[in-house]
């Protein structure tokens, strides 16, 4: 009685198997399930079936519908998969081709070193102070116990600008970052822990001197600060900055008008190879000392109550040492080849917890 | 300051090695600059006896010599014309390096005769230019002894740098004293005996300028014979780089270095009148001993006779009255001059002399009489003659003063626990005399040569200080300064390496923020621009004025009075100026496509507040060549993009900025813009570099640039953010194309659209700009996408349509635009 159903099933299975693409598959689907499809017709004709057979045929028709729908759907998935596979076979790129370019710039080594300096001294509680490049004679010299006739002035190779309106003393381009000390002592009460970083200028130009360079000045004023603390601060800084935990550090007596006692600080290295930390030679790296009582008094700080120390170091110099750079001049040349070689990733800034 | 080891040992009794001496010098603040030891290179050259110098059997010009250099007779072939039997010569054996020829000797055979060494000329030893023959030594020269030792050439020359505070160490004696105090031996006594005068007479002093010269003494010695100095004195001077002149002049130079006591000698026969007057200069011209003419200033101290100026006091003597081989009567000057005046005079005339160097640092005032006696004795020894009485004008100034040190302060200030006895011992060895001492403190008399200890205090206090605070600070300085001076001496002699280092105690468990908001902003700007593809540069703050003026104002106040080079004379008006030149340098190297930035100062006026911190960037040439993206020249939108990226990173609300089509003259007038916040605050500009500027400076083009004044960016407000606005309904997007006059800024259209229905419109984006044949002349089509964001429920078509009408109406009202 249901032979026609079996026949439709067999026929459809065969047609689906023969459908090689979606168009053929769709034709089969419409031929079976479409409005004029064979199965649709059989379902429509169910009403004409004698009542006693109706139930049985209805069940059979429903089973057939489910089976055919499933078979058609399964064929679709198969065909689509095959179609996708075929498409993917044609979609081949050469993965060795370069992507769209996206230039990344780099941070200048001076900025990087300044960042490292700020991170390390920042961990010791120092804040960073800025100051102007054009200074008055008082901030750059007089306040720092370098009066007009002092021989140290001659050593500074100062750049002068015409006197400012109404004045008679020329303005200067700061020869060191020490005026930042003075500005700090005048603007905040002790205790003080600051570093001053920035551009400094001296009329000198050769392989080891540039008319413009960068310094980092440090100033700590507190009760009971001794020369021992100064040594501690500098040893801690140098060993962290150069990442050499046993870097030899030597302190020699020296003279600066604004500190007393004054010390030059050397680190151990190998003069021949440039390797830091060992080698038996000494390299002068920074100047330091206990703040001179006249400097404190010039800024209204009573040296009986407060004492402290200051240091100054050359940013380029420690940068060259840390990274083994031979020449000072390229720092200001802006040669993109040099910048690309020595520059730093802007997205990996100095952070103590990631390592200096 | 240079001296030789043997010279040092005339003042210092010591067994210390050269190395220990030089290490100690560096440690105590007399930094070693270098040691030159000529003896080391010449050590293998020995004195030899030429037993026979026979004609070479096979060569006319050569001689076959038998030579004894102390360890057997060897055969040497010698080509020197002066080689002869019986002479004493300098011999070098096989294996010796010959400095003059740069070769190392080997045993050889010259035309059939063995040659196992060499007899040397001065040039071959590197001791001079003489190559006319081999060196012939006196007959009594000892055979086998190293030549340098016999000739006295093995005296190491030590050079130290003397800090400005240590005038006393511009003398061999001063250095010896410091070394002795540091434990390297004992200072030999110096007590010249008084040479009794044989007559009364000679020039007299008269001081008419006491501010410059408080005290001067002198002495005439007559009947002298002024010839070249003996070898020992010539050696002393030549070793340290001075040229021996004649005995009288050499004596003055000797004491300048030996005692740090400059002297001057006048030839009395050349002086006019019997009085030497110290007075202000009056515009006279004097020819100095260095052969140059100087015009004296009223601030200079001149030493004059009846004929005029004969010496610039303390700086340089005059040629007319100098001593030469004809001098028979000499007048020795020994003076005390004001250090500041000497420094000024030296600087004014640009004279650097050994005398100036010492006078401007301060001379030992108490040494003057002894120095004159010592000089007299040496002149009599070298030149004969008889001394006159010592004549003087002015008087010894009061230099005596005390200083007190509390022992507890050595640790409390110096950080080192040094026993009181050791501290006092150090001071005593330096010449300080103990005047009082108890458990807690010592008071010492400061020696006459240490003008750096307990010096008169000169303050230059800030005029803005509170008077009470200023007075307390000054009083504090007066109380501690001399003590600090003494602590420094005690620490220094022991070596500052001996002070135990102490790490800085923490003020708080976690340090506070290190950077100010402005500094944080600078750091963020740097990272943002680098991440955007620009290379950070650091260029000079100064540049050529003629270039600078193309980028902005170049006030005279910002022009250096003493530039190091003519092209580095003007403080730059913007970092862009120096960056542009950096791009040019790169182009010259073959890299014309660059993207550079700098964060640095721009200078407006000479006051500190005239300096701005600026972030500037530029791009030149074209984008990178790549197979995916066609290469194109950089354009103004690259510059605006860099700027917008930066402003966004810095948290500037872009919608609060006004951009207008005006910009500095160095930018393209039509392809540039100024960015303002509010009507006045100019924050930034961007644009294409003006083609005329490219041409004038030969810059690589095209070039686009921006500048942002970082000081104009407000500090971020520390406020909690409002809750995030995350509506549950999907936004609706509608496109509009408006036809506007080409002169209407696009921003006006965008702002009008955004303002049309503030509660609904959350974004307006311009996605197309068109101007061309299909449009009426002078019109531009601007296509925008408007985003409507429903909040309470989905919008009906009617509501959407109403919102769109509002957009059209608002844009039309604001700009005269019509829908296309």
Write the layout of secondary structure elements.
The complex is a heterodimer of chains A (356) and B (820).
Chain A: H1 3-18, H2 22-33, H3 38-44, H4 51-90, H5 109-123, E1 127-129, E2 134-135, H6 137-140, H7 151-155, E3 160-161, E4 171-173, H8 179-187, E5 192-201, E6 212-222, H9 227-241, E7 249-256, E8 259-269, E9 281-291, H10 293-298, E10 307-314, H11 315-323, H12 336-342
Parallel strand pairs in A: 1-5
Antiparallel strand pairs in A: 2-4, 3-4, 5-6, 6-10, 7-8, 8-9, 9-10
Helix pairs in contact in A: 1-2, 1-4, 2-4, 5-11
Chain B: E1 2-4, H1 5-9, E2 12-13, H2 18-27, E3 32-36, H3 38-42, E4 46-55, E5 63-68, E6 73-78, E7 88-92, E8 97-98, E9 103-104, E10 108-110, E11 113-115, E12 118-119, H4 147-151, E13 157-160, H5 172-184, E14 186-187, E15 204-207, E16 215-222, H6 231-239, H7 247-258, E17 264-267, E18 275-280, E19 285-287, E20 293-295, E21 301-305, E22 308-312, E23 316-317, E24 329-336, H8 339-349, H9 354-359, H10 368-383, E25 386-394, E26 402-406, H11 408-414, H12 420-429, E27 433-437, E28 441-445, H13 467-494, H14 517-531, E29 535-536, E30 542-543, H15 545-548, E31 570-571, H16 575-588, E32 595-603, E33 611-620, H17 636-649, E34 657-660, E35 667-677, E36 681-689, H18 691-697, E37 703-709, E38 732-741, H19 746-755, E39 761-770, E40 779-788, H20 797-815, E41 818-819
Parallel strand pairs in B: 15-18, 29-32
Antiparallel strand pairs in B: 1-13, 2-14, 3-13, 4-5, 4-7, 5-6, 7-12, 8-9, 10-11, 16-24, 16-25, 17-24, 18-21, 19-20, 21-22, 22-23, 26-28, 27-28, 30-31, 32-33, 33-37, 34-35, 35-36, 36-37, 38-40, 38-41, 39-40
Helix pairs in contact in B: 2-5, 5-12, 6-7, 7-10, 11-13, 12-13, 14-17, 19-20
Organism (chain B): Rhodopila globiformis (Rhodopseudomonas globiformis)
Cofactor (chain B): Mg(2+)
Family (chain B): Belongs to the phenylalanyl-tRNA synthetase beta subunit family. Type 1 subfamily.
């Amino acid at each position: 009685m249901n032979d026609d159903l079996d026949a439709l099933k067999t026929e459809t299975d065969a047609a689906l198997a023969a459908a090689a693409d979606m168009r053929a598959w769709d034709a089969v689907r419409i031929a079976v399930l479409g409005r004029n499809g064979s199965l649709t017709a059989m379902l429509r004709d169910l009403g004409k079936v004698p009542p006693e057979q109706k139930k049985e045929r209805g069940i059979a028709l429903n089973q057939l519908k489910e089976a055919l729908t499933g078979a058609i759907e399964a064929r679709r998935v198969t065909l689509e998969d095959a179609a996708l596979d075929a498409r993917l076979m044609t979609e081949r790129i050469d993965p060795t081709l370069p992507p769209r370019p996206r230039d990344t710039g780099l941070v200048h080594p001076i900025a990087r070193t300044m960042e490292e300096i700020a991170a390390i001294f920042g961990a010791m509680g120092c804040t960073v102070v800025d100051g102007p490049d054009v200074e008055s004679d008082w901030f750059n010299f007089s306040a720092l116990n370098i009066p007009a006739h002092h021989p140290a002035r001659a050593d500074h190779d100062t750049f002068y600008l015409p006197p400012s309106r109404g004045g008679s003393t020329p303005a200067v381009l700061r020869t060191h970052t020490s005026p930042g000390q003075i500005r700090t002592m005048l603007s905040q009460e002790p205790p003080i822990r600051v570093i001053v970083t920035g551009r400094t200028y001296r009329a000198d130009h050769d392989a080891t001197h540039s008319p413009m360079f960068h310094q980092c000045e440090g100033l700590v004023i507190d009760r009971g600060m001794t020369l021992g603390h100064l040594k501690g601060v500098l040893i801690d800084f140098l060993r962290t900055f150069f990442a050499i935990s046993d870097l030899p550090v030597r302190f020699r007596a020296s003279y600066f008008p604004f500190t007393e006692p004054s010390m030059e600080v050397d680190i151990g290295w190998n003069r021949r190879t440039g390797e830091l930390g060992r080698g038996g030679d000494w390299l002068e790296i920074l100047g330091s000392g206990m703040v001179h009582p006249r400097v404190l008094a010039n800024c209204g700080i009573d040296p009986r109550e407060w004492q402290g120390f200051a240091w100054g170091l050359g940013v380029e110099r420690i940068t060259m040492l840390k990274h083994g750079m031979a020449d000072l001049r390229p720092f200001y040349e802006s040669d993109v080849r040099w910048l690309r070689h020595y520059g730093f990733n802007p997205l990996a800034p100095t952070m103590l917890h990631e390592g200096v | 300051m240079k001296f030789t080891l043997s010279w040092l040992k005339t003042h210092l009794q010591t067994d210390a090695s050269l190395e220990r001496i030089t290490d100690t010098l560096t440690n105590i603040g007399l930094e070693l600059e270098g040691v030159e030891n000529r003896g080391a290179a010449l050590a293998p050259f020995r004195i030899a006896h030429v037993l026979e110098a026979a004609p070479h059997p096979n060569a006319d010009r050569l001689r076959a010599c038998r030579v004894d250099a102390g360890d057997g007779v060897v055969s040497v072939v010698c080509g020197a014309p002066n080689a002869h039997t019986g002479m004493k010569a300098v011999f070098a054996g096989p294996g010796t390096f010959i400095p003059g020829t740069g070769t190392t000797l080997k045993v050889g055979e010259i035309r059939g005769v063995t040659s196992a060494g060499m007899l040397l000329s001065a040039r071959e030893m590197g001791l001079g230019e003489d190559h006319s023959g081999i060196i012939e030594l006196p007959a009594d020269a000892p055979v086998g002894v190293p030549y340098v030792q016999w000739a006295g050439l093995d005296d190491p020359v030590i050079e130290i740098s003397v800090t400005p505070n240590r005038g006393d160490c511009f003398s061999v004696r001063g250095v010896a004293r410091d070394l002795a105090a540091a434990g390297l031996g004992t200072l030999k006594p110096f007590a010249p005996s008084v040479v009794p005068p044989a007559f009364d007479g000679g020039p007299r002093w008269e001081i008419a300028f006491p501010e410059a010269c408080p005290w001067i003494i002198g002495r005439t010695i007559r009947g002298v014979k002024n010839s070249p100095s003996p070898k020992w004195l010539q050696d002393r001077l030549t070793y340290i780089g001075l040229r021996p002149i004649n005995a009288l002049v050499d004596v003055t130079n000797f004491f300048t270095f030996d005692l740090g006591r400059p002297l001057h000698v006048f030839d009395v026969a050349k002086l006019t009148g019997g009085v030497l007057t110290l007075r202000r200069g009056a515009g006279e011209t004097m020819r100095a001993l260095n052969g140059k003419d100087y015009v004296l200033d009223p601030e200079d101290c001149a030493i004059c006779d009846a004929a005029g100026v004969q010496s610039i006091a303390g700086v340089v003597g005059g040629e007319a009255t100098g001593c030469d081989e004809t001098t028979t009567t000499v007048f020795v000057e020994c003076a005390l001059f004001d250090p500041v005046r000497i420094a000024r005079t030296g600087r004014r005339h640009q004279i650097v002399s050994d005398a100036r160097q010492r006078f401007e640092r301060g001379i030992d005032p108490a040494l003057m009489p002894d120095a004159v006696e010592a000089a007299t004795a040496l002149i009599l020894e070298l030149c004969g003659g008889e001394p006159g009485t010592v004549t003087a004008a002015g008087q010894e100034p009061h230099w005596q003063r005390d200083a007190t040190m509390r022992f507890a302060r050595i640790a409390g200030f110096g950080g080192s626990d040094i026993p009181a006895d050791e501290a006092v011992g150090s001071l005593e060895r330096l010449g300080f005399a103990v005047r009082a001492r108890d458990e807690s403190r010592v008071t010492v008399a400061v020696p006459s040569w240490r003008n750096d200890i307990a010096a008169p205090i000169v303050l230059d206090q800030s005029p803005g200080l509170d008077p009470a605070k200023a007075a307390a600070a000054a009083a504090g300085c007066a109380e501690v300064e001399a003590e600090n001076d003494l602590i420094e001496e005690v620490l220094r002699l022991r070596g500052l390496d001996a002070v135990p280092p102490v790490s800085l105690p923490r003020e708080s468990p976690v340090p506070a923020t290190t950077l100010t908001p402005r500094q944080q902003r600078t750091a963020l700007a740097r990272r943002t621009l680098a991440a955007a593809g620009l290379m950070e540069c650091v260029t000079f703050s100064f540049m050529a004025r003629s270039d600078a003026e193309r980028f902005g104002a170049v006030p005279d106040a910002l022009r250096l009075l003493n530039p190091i080079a003519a092209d580095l004379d003007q403080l730059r008006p913007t970092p862009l100026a120096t960056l542009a030149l950096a791009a040019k340098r790169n182009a010259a190297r073959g890299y014309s496509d660059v993207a550079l930035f700098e964060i640095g100062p721009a200078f407006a006026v000479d006051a500190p507040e005239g300096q701005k911190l600026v972030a500037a960037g530029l791009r030149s040439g074209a984008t990178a060549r790549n197979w995916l993206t066609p290469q194109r020249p950089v354009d103004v939108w690259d510059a605006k993009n860099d700027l917008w990226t930066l402003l966004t990173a810095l948290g500037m609300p872009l919608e609060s900025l006004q951009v207008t089509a005006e910009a500095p003259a160095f930018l393209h007038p039509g392809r540039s813009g100024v960015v303002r916040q509010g009507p006045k605050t100019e924050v930034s500009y961007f644009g294409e570099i003006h083609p005329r500027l490219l041409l004038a400076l030969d810059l690589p083009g095209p070039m686009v640039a921006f500048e942002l004044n970082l000081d104009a960016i407000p500090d971020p407000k520390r406020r909690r953010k409002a809750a995030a606005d995350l509506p549950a309904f999907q936004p609706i997007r509608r496109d509009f194309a408006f036809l506007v006059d080409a002169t209407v800024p696009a921003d006006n259209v965008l702002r009008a659209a955004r303002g049309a229905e503030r509660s609904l419109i959350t974004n307006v984006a311009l996605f197309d700009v068109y101007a061309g044949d299909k449009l009426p002349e002078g019109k531009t089509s601007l296509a925008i996408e408007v985003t409507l964001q429903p909040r309470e429920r989905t919008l009906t078509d009617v509501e959407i349509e109403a919102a769109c009408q509002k957009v059209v109406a608002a844009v039309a009202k604001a700009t005269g635009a019509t829908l296309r």
